Amino acid sequence: MNFWSIVISIVAGLGLGLVMVYFKNRDFSNVFVITLKDFTSNMRKGQLIDVRKKIINENDKINGSRHFTARKISSKNVNLRKDLSVYLYCENGKLSKRVAKKLSKKGFNNIYVLAKGYKNYKENH
Question: Which pTM was predicted?
Answer without folding.
Answer: 0.78
